[in-house]
Design goal:
The complex is a heterodimer. By secondary structure, chain A is mainly alpha-helical. Helix content of chain A is 67%, strand content 0%. Chain A is elongated and about 75 Å long. In chain B, strands 1-2 form a two-stranded antiparallel ribbon. The longest helix of chain B is centred in the N-terminal third of the chain and has 36 residues. The chains are: A mainly alpha, B mainly alpha. The interface between A and B is large, with 77 and 79 residues.
Chain lengths: 135, 289
């Protein structure tokens, strides 16, 4: 449908256009500034080092898990908001993403609830961690 | 001009059923986000299995995760984060019409993806060599066993591979009996090997297991979950590599630029989701303590 013979000429910038010029000409999408990408990248590396380094400390089984997942969530947020441009995107796309998170949370939490409810009684002593209220 | 003729946008890349580029671009992104939502839910199924097994048997996860190499996992994480960065940069290059940089960044992303798979292959090979597979294939060999000093679980730094010679060596060097270096299998413990130990094997347990009557061991399940999750993730990495290779070929031909960069953007979104999933897989599988 599109005339591909013109693509190379039309797509070749005579000089690299600045983000402002792009937005002036055709408001298609947001161009992430390079420094934003770089800062997010460095932050991700730092958080990775943190998540590995923090394993030398022991805050207890549950707290270790909570800490690891919190750091992972922060990393995920950085990737989603800036690398995937969701911070600058149409609200409906943000809604889709949050909706998938809600359903994932429902899925895992309700299933865990269900399992914790009956698992210790199906086979006595089968799930020691769930049966022991002090753990 | 017939009355049924549609108005064409100035942009030659706009398909005839769209009014303008903005509408086409927004539609493309919307479709991509919907697809990514389904991808996340796909992995949510496996994360749910992980959550259930870990909730029921945390001791198995604490025990079995030392078989995974944290260093390789960490390197893989850095590799994927770097590839995400170059991919996001490539999208920016396409938006600004920087053709050479676009090709370079897409190539680097592809190479990093290869590196990720290479490290994964090394990890998998190690598991296969040691017999640490899933289900009934879980038949750990002598080289797989890990020596821990008897008593409390020792920190990661003191973990070593155990052969009969090494055990004898360590026993001699520390002037402790060989038995001191090998923890006894709990008679009624839930964890451990899937069958009773042979005479030449020295099975070890990291933590004192809670006693219960069920005779099955669940370490094979841990490896089942490990291979299912990382395997499905690796399949997604391969699919992402095919997409990036296709984008690379098109970029070399100069198909992308400020007027049309939607495929690069959507391919980038997919790659970031692959990275996202690994960001969660890494601490959940490799950093359990």
């Amino acid at each position: 449908m599109a005339s591909n013979s013109n693509t190379i000429e039309q797509n070749q910038a005579i000089r690299p256009l600045s983000a402002g010029e792009i937005l002036q000409k055709e408001e298609i999408g947001h161009v992430a500034p390079f420094w934003v990408l770089l800062v997010v990248f460095i932050a991700l590396l730092v958080l990775t080092a943190l998540t590995v380094g923090i394993t030398i400390f022991d805050f207890g089984y549950t707290m270790n898990l909570v800490l690891a997942l919190s750091i992972a969530t922060v990393k995920a947020l950085l990737v989603v908001l800036f690398f995937m441009h969701l911070a600058y995107d149409k609200p409906f796309n943000i809604l889709i993403f949050i909706a998938s998170l809600v359903f994932i949370a429902l899925f895992i939490l309700v299933t865990l609830l269900d399992v914790a409810q009956y698992q210790p009684t199906v086979i006595p002593g089968y799930a020691p961690a769930l049966a022991d209220p002090t753990q | 001009m017939s009355s049924t003729d549609h108005h064409h946008s100035d942009n030659p890349h706009v398909a005839h059923h769209f009014e303008n580029m903005t509408q086409q671009f927004d539609s493309g992104k919307l479709g991509m986000w919907l697809f990514l939502a389904t991808e996340l839910l796909l992995f949510a199924g496996l994360f749910c299995a992980y959550a259930i097994y870990r909730a029921m048997h945390p001791e198995v996860f604490l025990y079995a995760h030392v078989y995974l190499d944290t260093t390789m996992g960490a390197i893989n994480t850095v590799v994927l984060i770097l590839s995400s960065f170059t991919m996001a940069w490539a999208v920016r290059n396409a938006q600004l019409g920087q053709q050479k940089a676009l090709i370079v960044n897409l190539s680097i992303t592809l190479v990093l993806a290869f590196a990720f798979l290479g490290i994964k292959a090394v990890e998998y090979k190690e598991k296969i060599d040691k017999g640490l597979l899933w289900g009934t294939l879980y038949q750990p060999k002598q080289e797989a066993q890990i020596v821990m000093p008897a008593g409390e679980a020792a920190p990661e730094a003191e973990i070593a591979m155990a052969t009969a010679e090494m055990i004898a060596e360590m026993a001699e060097a520390t002037n402790m009996g060989e038995e001191q270096w090998i923890m006894k299998v709990a008679a009624t413990g839930p964890t451990g090997l899937s069958r009773l130990p042979d005479t030449d094997r020295k099975p070890l347990l990291l933590a004192q297991p809670k006693t219960y009557e069920h005779p099955d061991a669940y370490v094979p399940s841990f490896f089942g979950i490990y291979f299912a999750m990382t395997g499905l993730h690796a399949i997604h990495v391969i699919a992402g590599m095919i997409v990036i290779a296709w984008l690379l070929l098109k970029s070399i031909k100069g198909h992308f630029g400020p007027k049309y960069y939607t495929p690069v953007d959507c391919g980038g979104l997919y790659w970031h989701v692959v990275d996202l999933i690994w960001i969660f897989l890494f601490p959940l599988l490799y950093l359990i303590h």
